[in-house]
Amino acid sequence: MHSPIAINDLGLSFPHKTCFSHFSTTIYSGQKIAIIGDNGSGKSTLLTLLSHSHSANNIVHDGQISLPDNVIVGYLPQFFDNDKQLSGGQALNKQLSQVLAKHPNILLLDEPTNHLDHKNRKSLFALLERYQGTLLVVTHDPELITRCTTELWHINNQKITQFSGSYENYLSVNQQLKESIASQQRQLQQQQKELHNKRMQEQKRTARSKSKGLKSIQDKKWSPIVGHMKSSYAQENTGKKQKLIAEQKDKLQQQMSSLYLPKMLSPTFQLNPKIIKNSLVIEIRDGSLGYTKDSPLLNHLNLRCYSGDRLVIQGNNGSGKTTLLRAIYGDNTLFKTGSWHLPEPKDIGYLQQNYPELDLHLTVQQELEKSAPDWNEQQIRQHLNTFLFYKHEALNQTVETLSGGEKVRLSLAKITANPPVLLLLDEITNNIDLTTKEYLIQVLSGYTGTMILVSHDVLFLQQIGITAEFSLEALNAELINRNKNMRV
């Protein structure tokens, strides 16, 4: 048990955006809260502020979070230092064990299901369901939200909305709201169109009336005084109508700006590398692999991949999935034996866990310039626009300020600048919101090269059309055929 935690008028802004403002609430002991929102909305930063950790001291924000003296915080951040010999799942379990050893009465978890296999996911859910303290978790994992939380904080459109109820009810309410907003937008657009037509007709009528009055004066049907009086009256009446139309138009524009629908990503490019159809891309024969020469992690590796193949590497946490990807990429720190026929690293696009290929001190634009040195500034900006990096400030923010999902988008932008023959993707759906995930599915579905993935997201694998799996748990690590046309 702990005393209530008071949040008063909390606000968070960065030079290029406002995440939220004027948020006030009270967190009571035992509450189970999921913090959700798009990538870059401020979820992880909010959790850091609640942790009162050393990192929180460097975050500029408005308002105040009052943590009582009897609160013991257990905080698991999204990113942490990891021994390369530990898998992502093993490292997360190690960090979580250290957090729980403090016996916290409030637990703050940032994307805790990242990297976890089925067995470890099951263990985490069981632990959180038994946990008697207060839980706040940042996640995009529907199962985690449904099983382990009872309330939602949704960061969206520069505010935090609190929702008490099931995740299923939240999705239903949110969908109804989106449909209502879309309907209102269509109605307002139609009203704007009608007002524009009305204004144009009024201008034409005024011009005709003025022309008729001048003609009547010229034809001496009206005296100049009467003619000018009628013209003045017509202009005054027209002015009133024009003013009314303008006021209605301003009101409509204000209503339009108050309605918010998130921007949708849509690929504007083709991810088509120059490949030879049916060509052999990878061949490993009787291979072994490990961190030391005398203690191989994997033995009896036999694998062939051809152009266009889509392969997922399966195995429990610590089985060697990421290590195999690193070996295929050409990591010289690993010890290999046997025959390894692999593409050159320059022909491979490799998106790694935790994105170590990104320089934290460079800006978003500078990172892409490294991958596309021959592009001009307009090409760089247009390419980044397709990955939701729009404003000048967004292009010039440093990589270290990006959320996990934004780092995925930037990494993908760098890879697609030079479409590779082989794509290596290590837990690519970690950290990404639904919008980015849908975009990713579109991009990868159209990719014509060879793809090898590590992922525990079964639905995602189905959606991108995986053709086979390579099980590291199976005897001799043999390829399991999932498609009769797949060559093994």
Automatic annotation (TrEMBL):
Q: Name one GO molecular function term.
A: ATP hydrolysis activity
| All residue ranges annotated as the ABC transporter domain in the record | 5-182, 282-488
Ordered alphabetically, the record's keywords are: ATP-binding, Nucleotide-binding, Repeat
List every stretch annotated Disordered: 182-217
Record-linked Pfam families: AAA_21 (PF13304), ABC_tran (PF00005)
| SUPFAM superfamilies associated with the record | P-loop containing nucleoside triphosphate hydrolases (SSF52540)
Which SMART domains does the protein's record reference?
AAA
Entry's InterPro entries? AAA+_ATPase, ABC_transporter-like_ATP-bd, ABC_transporter-like_CS, ABCF, ATPase_AAA_core, P-loop_NTPase
> Gene3D superfamilies, per this entry?
P-loop containing nucleotide triphosphate hydrolases
Chain intervals with Basic and acidic residues compositional bias: 193-205
PANTHER family attached to this UniProt entry: ATP-BINDING CASSETTE SUB-FAMILY F MEMBER 1, ATP-BINDING TRANSPORT PROTEIN-RELATED
Q: What is this protein called?
A: ABC-F family ATP-binding cassette domain-containing protein
User: Native species of this protein?
Assistant: Zophobihabitans entericus
